[in-house]
Amino acid sequence: MKQLDDYRDKHIVVLGLAKSGVQVAKVLHQAGASVIVNDRKEREQCPEASELEALGISVICGGHPDDLIHPGVSLLVKNPGIPYSVPPVQKAIELEIPVVTEVEIAYHLCEAPMIGITGSNGKTTTTTWVGKLLESAGLSPIVAGNIGTPLSEAAATATEHDWMVVELSSFQLKGTEAFRPRIACLLNVTETHLDYHGGMDDYVASKAKLFANQTSEDTAVLNWDDPVCRNLVPYIKAHIVPFSMSESLREGVHITPPYTPGAQDSDEDDQGRTIIYTDGEGFTHEIIRVENIGLPGRFNVGNAMAACAIAIAAGVAPDKLEEALSSFRGVEHRLEFVAELHGVSYYNNSKATNSKATHMALTSFKEPVVLIAGGLDRGSDYEELIPSMQGRVKAVVLLGETREKIANAAAKAGLKDIILVDNGEDAASTLTSAVRKAAGLAESGDIVLLSPACASWDMFPSYETRGRIFKEAVHNL
User: Record-annotated residues binding ATP (predicted)?
Assistant: First the structure.
């Protein structure tokens, strides 16, 4: 573990008592900083407070005191989900006090080289897959970050012989300054989280901070099929390794024969297609036939290609990738197979918190789909779902704040069976009712898919809770 002497005797405020806040407070305290942790929740809602106080760390719950941020504060470390509009953050900005997230602290702490992976969709699947690829090749990956384990906790135990494989959100990246991953990957960029960022410019700029401190000694893996990713090329100093499903590349990971740009899963067959790597020196290496990839869906082909590019950049030989690509079966709540009942297959895609993610899920299936969707209203009209509904979705069951908006999109797509579920006694009973209605509409050979296209927070504390309730409801049919 690196020494954090720069933080010794500094007055540091940690804003937010989530897992990452607790861990980063411990790290900074061990480094000799004077740490105050603040959370607006009441004390009885902050069970972690006693643990920190036993270590000698000050904790303030129940609101943000006016004098929390003052000129003597050297650094504010905030929970990524806390908006920049809250008074303590605004005051820190006014006083020119640096505002960072845990990622920045963990970077200074970590001895292992870092692989940073971000994107609007596919982050968790790709991050987990990279860990499997490295492990299968005999390397020592530590998978952490937005994926579950707090990054500063994992970084404290990492050695120079490990690889730190980190899933990163735009919220986390916005609060970085010196963070420099050895390998950085941007999977894709689509319109999401605009309520937090205030617009696409800030959202894209936050994602792009992944590359800001890289040099020519580092590697940037980019989705060559995504125009936003390609537009970042002039600003990236690292060696760029692209991946593409629609172009042949002199260097990078691509498919032969390539897919037609814009084609959907049902438009072109995967049979006979192969993922290959070209090294820029004229050598071509076959990695895996597309039909042998362990996860369904065209978008998971893209995730697999990104994972290959990252693993190769980390030193894995292309011929060592096939087994882990074919054996990987995915991550909970990401197009997760739940059960087959009476010939109907049920899939949990609760992590689909935007329309693009739901579109990608729908285009993964050739069977008729009964779609369960709806959730927090962030202002979208959901009309981008119309093309993926047409010819694929036979019925929709809708709940949450957006149910009428998605119903309008479904009607424009020509669907006749559009069921709106009213709120029951609680969120669990409402979703359970939706599952039963969907099961009643499905026939043998159909898919029932939970893919909400919305965040969960209007009804559930997290997409994980939503997904687990869905699975329980399916098993109770």
Answer: 119-125
